[in-house]
């Protein structure tokens, strides 16, 4: 079986070494991807100076070009974000904005550079919003050229207005664990299909 590569962009607002529910969820999905012969790397985006803008490189000091190269080398992109006021984090929104530049990048056969890559999403929060965030994330990623597998997302919503975070749970809820497994398995399956036979040029 072909070994694939995954990159997880964790879009928590908390810089390292602070504990993060989004980080925990991303690690859990990467663990499930590993069960499907996918090697994974995790980047906490807020630890890097990713500048605002919609260009591939926003100038001296911009950390995005290095992250963009890692995306280019990966078969699967996971974006993990918390929920803030019912929306994805500003860090996740910035990632989408910076990926917009990929629309003008093409491969050797003239296809958009992200064709052939798979994207999945993970959302955590103790308020409503996960479904809308997933819809916004996956629509944006699909616009850029990523393919979305069946049930290509996972999430956890805690009870509204309660201070419990995902990372505070004694164990992963069975429904979340099952969804992590399905999302990872389907992402690996689709990525292998696309590796074997890409989209027409």
UniProtKB/TrEMBL annotation:
For this UniProt entry, the molecular function terms from Gene Ontology, in alphabetical order, are:
oxidoreductase activity
Domain (NADPH-dependent FMN reductase-like) spans 8-147
Q: Which InterPro entries does the annotation name?
A: Flavoprotein-like_sf (IPR029039), FMN_Rdtase-like_dom (IPR005025)
Q: SUPFAM superfamilies per the record?
A: Flavoproteins (SSF52218)
> Mind telling me which Gene3D superfamilies this protein's record contains?
3.40.50.360
Q: Under which name does UniProt file this protein?
A: NADPH-dependent FMN reductase
Its lineage reads: Bacteria, Bacillati, Actinomycetota, Actinomycetes, Pseudonocardiales
